[in-house]
């Protein structure tokens, strides 16, 4: 089925497909592969190395970041961040009302949780922090510096959580499998903190070079964005929150022409583009799941301050984590299965059967993990916390990093997108103008990411290379992959 056909069906209410959870963990991908696709060979040459992610299948993440699901509210994020009996505290990007889904939101939440602990605790108390991501390490750093006895309990064999920087001799620079951007630099000091640590960042424009399936460069009209804006304005006047898909359908904003213009693209194609290239990646979820009241599509409207540019991290996001964890007691490869708390303190049960006691505990595990209920709370969390965990959405955005011997493309644009086709990877980052190296990073989101998370490396790579064909240039350095 054509992507545009599915889209029109979904926004008309005929096919609202629920975001399904992926529960089976998969091994970490290998550093490099050279598979032969079983489908028709692509014109695009095979890469020298590949790295891919599958965040939905990661048992310690269960998704990439939180998003505003239909019916969820910012107040629920605040509720999730409230202390429970001054014994259990929560942090993480999902508890941030104004910067959810970002590294800055996670870091701020960890610092906020540390302040909450200081207000409740006596000097020198033992504090357990569950999770060695940016939220957990930020909280641990502040508490350690304030004189508390801090232990960080981490399920993985590494620190960082959804910041996953891989330094490999086969790659010319650090590979960011997780977070790779500092968003809205006008509202954060994160880019300055990275610079202070010698980590390179670069300005990154959100305006892509768009191409048709035939490889023709086209200007992006306002058609799709205007349709979404019309739908969101209509939804804002409704008595209850509805999905963006329903808002598009019920407002009439999705009733666009399917007749191709001179470019071979119709107005409906441009609405599909706005959804698959803008909305789906921002939330990591389909528009049938996204709130029309709290969509990121209008998050910066009327913000009152210049949000600043976005910057891409080139020198290793994990450097920030290494500094934060210096001198901190980190208990790695330790899964917490139960948290019991009372007036006298808290007790953690680990997956290996051991126990750990503390006066108070800060929980920074991702929202996706909290939804699985693999971590038991005794007594159960208050209704406000359980309601927030159930209501807030978890989206998936996966990446493929491809390193080539030399470029097969002829554009200097750092950001690429495709329109009107059925490719799985609709967004690509060209690292040549940023680093000088022939490396491409493909992004895949929402239902497509969940589907591809279940395929092997051969099929995954075949989908990526097929999606790159609109950018293939049959120049002297371009060599098709052999059959």
Automatic annotation (TrEMBL):
Residues 1-23 form the signal peptide. InterPro entries: Amino_oxidase, FAD/NAD-bd_sf, Flavin_monoamine_oxidase. It comes from the Bacteria. This is FAD-dependent oxidoreductase. One of its GO terms (molecular function) is oxidoreductase activity. Residues 42-117, 134-473 form the Amine oxidase domain. Pfam families: Amino_oxidase (PF01593). The keyword DNA repair does not apply.
């Amino acid at each position: 089925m054509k992507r545009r056909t599915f889209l029109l069906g979904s926004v008309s209410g005929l096919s609202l497909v629920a975001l399904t959870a992926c529960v089976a963990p998969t091994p970490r991908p290998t550093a490099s592969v050279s598979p032969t696709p079983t489908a028709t060979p692509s014109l695009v040459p095979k890469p020298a190395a590949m790295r891919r992610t599958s965040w939905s299948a990661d048992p310690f993440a269960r998704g990439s970041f939180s998003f505003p699901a239909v019916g969820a509210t910012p107040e629920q994020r605040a509720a999730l961040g409230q202390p429970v009996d001054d014994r259990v505290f929560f942090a993480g990007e999902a508890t941030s009302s104004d910067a959810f889904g970002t590294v800055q939101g996670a870091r701020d939440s960890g610092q906020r949780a540390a302040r909450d602990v200081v207000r409740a605790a006596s000097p020198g108390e033992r504090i357990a922090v569950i999770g060695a991501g940016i939220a957990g390490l930020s909280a641990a750093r502040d508490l350690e510096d304030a004189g508390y006895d801090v232990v960080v309990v981490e399920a993985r064999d590494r620190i960082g959580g959804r910041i996953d920087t891989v330094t490999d001799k086969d790659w010319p620079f650090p590979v960011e499998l997780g977070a790779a951007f500092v968003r809205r630099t006008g509202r954060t000091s994160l880019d300055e903190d990275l610079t202070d640590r010698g980590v390179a960042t670069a300005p990154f424009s959100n305006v892509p070079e768009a191409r048709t399936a035939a490889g023709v460069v086209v200007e992006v009209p306002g058609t799709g964005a205007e349709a979404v804006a019309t739908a969101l304005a209509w939804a804002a006047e409704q008595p209850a929150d509805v999905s963006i898909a329903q808002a598009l359908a019920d407002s009439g904003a999705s009733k666009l022409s399917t007749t191709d213009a001179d470019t071979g693209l119709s107005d409906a194609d441009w609405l599909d583009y706005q959804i698959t290239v803008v909305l789906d990646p921002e939330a990591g979820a389909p528009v049938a799941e996204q709130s029309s009241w709290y969509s990121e599509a209008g998050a910066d409207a009327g913000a009152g301050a210049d949000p600043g540019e976005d910057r891409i991290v080139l020198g290793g996001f994990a450097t920030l984590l290494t500094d934060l964890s210096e001198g901190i007691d980190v208990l790695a490869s330790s899964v917490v299965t139960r948290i019991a708390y009372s007036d006298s303190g808290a007790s953690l049960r680990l997956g290996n059967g051991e126990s750990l006691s503390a006066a108070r505990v800060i929980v920074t595990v991702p929202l996706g993990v909290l939804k699985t209920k693999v971590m038991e709370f005794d007594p159960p969390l208050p209704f406000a916390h359980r309601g927030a965990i159930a209501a807030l959405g978890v989206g998936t955005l996966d990446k493929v990093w491809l390193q080539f011997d030399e470029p097969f493309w002829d554009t200097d644009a750092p950001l690429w997108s495709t329109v009107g086709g059925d490719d799985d990877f609709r967004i690509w980052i060209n690292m040549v103008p940023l680093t000088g190296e022939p490396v491409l990073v493909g992004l895949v989101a929402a239902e497509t990411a969940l589907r591809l998370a279940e395929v092997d490396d051969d099929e995954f790579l075949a989908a990526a290379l097929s999606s790159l064909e609109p950018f293939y240039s049959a120049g002297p350095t371009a060599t098709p992959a052999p059959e």
